[in-house]
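Holo prediction — manganese (II) ion.
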Amino acid sequence: MSSRILMIEDNEQNRYLATFLLERNGFQVESAVDGAAGLRAAASNPPDIILLDIQLPKMDGHAVARALRELRELDRTPIIAVTSYAMVGDREKSLAAGCDGYIEKPIDPETFVDTIRDIVEQVRHIRGRT
Ligand code: MN
């Protein structure tokens, strides 16, 4: 069975590109356009991997990551932050909020899927299969 990815991303173009790249590589993708919708989707049908935009309306990605980690079903699930922020310390904030890794926007189609696979493998090595 292929991995199910929940992508929480408010930008339609980013959703489109990421979904295209992931589906082409055999992933199943569900998307949510804000943190509240993402939390509902994650709780009702826990995914194998979460891709989390940090710059979201209302609830930012750091807050979403913390809330996701409070869901018992998701305490071992790889969460990968995706952000265009070039702010100093943003990566550390994402990791402190519960993310396992970090991908910078704009998405590079050449490396996007491999980077996700690398982060997921690292997480599974450390934490065990989810
Ligand atoms: Mn965004």
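READOUT: The mean pLDDT is 92.
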